[in-house]
Structure formats: structure tokens, C-alpha cells
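A quick aside before the break. I want you to see a complete sequence-to-structure record at least once, exactly as it would be stored in a machine-readable document. Don't worry about memorizing anything.
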Amino acid sequence: MATPSGARVTARPTPTGPRTPHGVSILTGARVVLPTGVADAGQVIVDGTRIAAAAPENAPVVDLSGHWVVPGFVDLHNHGGGGASFTSGTVEDVLRGIRTHRLHGTTTLVASTVTGDMDFLTHRAGLLSELAEQGEIAGIHFEGPFISPCRKGAHSEELLRHPDPADVRKLIDAARGRARMLTLATELPGGIDSVRLLVEHGVIAAVGHTDATYEQTVAAIDAGATVATHLFNAMPALGHRAPGPIAALLEDERVTVELINDGTHLHPAALELAFRHAGAARVAFITDAMDAAGFGDGRYMLGPLQVEVSDGVARLVEGGSIAGSTLTQDRAFKRAVTIDRLPVEDVVRALSANPARLLGMDDRIGSLEPGKDADLVVLDANFDLKGVMRRGEWVVDPQLN
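That is the input. The structure line, written in C-alpha cells, reads:
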């Protein structure tokens, strides 16, 4: 339950505008970011729900001169928004959170849970799997309860447990084929066997909230772990004698590293380090958002724990640990380009192409190519969001001045 001080959604859908749920339209004049690079004065042809290679004569044209068009954002790790939690809210609450993030450009979202008891999590998996079957979310990410009490962050220590493969299997089964990722501390008893189980069932094994050594992390990667959950956060710091998990995760080409680019979770130098060593092909920007994203400051619940959000930063009331973020992906994009000075093409890979590939959905989403879903974001010259299209329909009509 939230007691916000004020809403902060910065873009809203409007009842009029160039909606194209079943027709053809040509978006023209913008700088379009394609897999091959940036096309100046490019165009994107939308035919129904998909991107097309050609348009019939006299198709309506939307002039986006002076703007950018980039693929819709794909968020692998998101706990809620709009005052709603994906872990504890009703179906209506979850839908409100999803729609909040869509207003900020996230056209594909994986709903993340936080630590709870097994009965609660299996029940929650059933609810979220129904939304995945309806196409509202891309699947479920379980963050906890199989994490280290030494690096628990904003998770309830009383509910943590070792990653017994039998318990991991319960969550997989409860998700009915919609489990996409599970974060675990692989150094705990059962951790490596659980990684192998996840891989066997096509679920991403993510190393996170871990106190593992370098050697233990290497063993987890060799067993099949392929994602670093919010790299640098909730794990031992990089050391020159005990390099820990960060070095192992950064150096291995099989691993994609999640980064929370909100200016709170990471110093810019840490972000640069990750990009320099992992490379743009192995970075996925995530929000790790909680209820307050796109909503406002105030008191919230994250699982059973109270969170105070002040000036957009979420911290546990007891202990002061960072408790997720209030980030939206449009803000992550703008910060990456204007403050971190990353190339636009690299930011697009981190926000769209790379997470789409991880999810095994890059045949449908993650880039602006014929045959793929018409998921895209319109940004102005300052990289502020002006429009969002999802599956060929404007969620946010372009706000053109």
C-alpha cells in the first residue's frame, strides 16, 4: 500500500492521434536506429502490428523530423510501478504497473517477484503466468528466496532459504512455462545443481545477491549461469587479491550483466568499467523498479518490508538499504546518452536488442526490422520521450511541437 506525495508520470496517452492498430502508416523524417547503424531522415513502415518492408501508395505519413526513433525498451528486471507491486498487487494493480512503464517506453517487461514463502510465491507465479499468457508481460523473474543472507539487500532474511533444486522446480512448475529467469546465490548448498536444473528447463540462471568468491562464480558460469543480477549491487566489491564475482562475471563472454543506470546504484565510473570490459553486446539496462516508479515519494511495502522513497530514492525504513529503484527506461536512456556519453547505438543494444536476445524473443522484438513487432519509442533531440508504439498502436501519441 502506497501513500504517495504526488504522481510523477511524465507522459500520458491521448485520445486522439495517428493510431494504427490495423492499418498502414509511414513514420518518416526521424533519425532511426537500426541494427546496421543510424539512418538519418529514415522511415519505419507500420503495417498492422508489424514493421513492413514496403507500404502501398497513399499510406498515411507521420512526420517525425527532428526526432529519434528507437526500438521499444525491454526490461528484464522490474518489480512494479504506478503505485503497484508485481509481488503483492491484484491483477488490476499489476496491469497498472505494466501500463505505467509502457508510458515510459517499456514495450516488453518481465515481472519480478521478491522473496516470500514458497506457498505465496507459487500462488503468485500462477497469477503472473496468466498475464504472460495474455501477452501483458514476457514472463516471470524470481528474485529470491534463494539468496545469501550476507547480501540480502531489500529481502526479508527470515524468508530466505538455500536453493534446493526441489524448491526451484516448484517455482518453475508453478509458472507453467512462463518462468524466464531466477536469481540465486550459487555458492549456497544446492546452488550449482539448481543452475543446471534451470538451464535444463530453459530458464535463465542469474547470479545475484551473492557472497560468492571468484572461483565459485566461475563454477556457476560453467554450470550454465548467464546473467549477473544488477552487477556491483548486492555482491562483494572488486578486490585485487579476492576479485570476487564481479571480475568473473565481467570477463566471461557467456554472461550478460544487468546495470541500473539511475545515478544512485552505480557511480559513472562503474558503469564505464562494465561497458569497457563486457562490451556493449553484453550489457542489459534494467530498472529494478518498485511501486514508486512513475508515481511519487512516500511509504511503500516491498514484500513484507517497509520502504521510504525520498527524492526518488527508495530505501528500507529499517537499515537504510537501497530497495530497488524508481527508474523508468526512458530516464535510463537519456542519462546514458547525455551524462554517461555512451553512443546511442550502444544504449539501444543495452535497452532493447540484448535483453530481447536473452529472452529468446529477438525474432520478434528488440530491433526495427521488417517482420518484427511494431514496438518503438520516439524521442526528441534532447532524448526526452515523445511517443510510444506497441504492436502497431500508439500507447503515447507523439507530442510534436
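Two observations worth writing down. Residues 118-133 form the longest helix (16 residues). Residues 1-21 have pLDDT under 50 and may be disordered. We'll return to this after the break.
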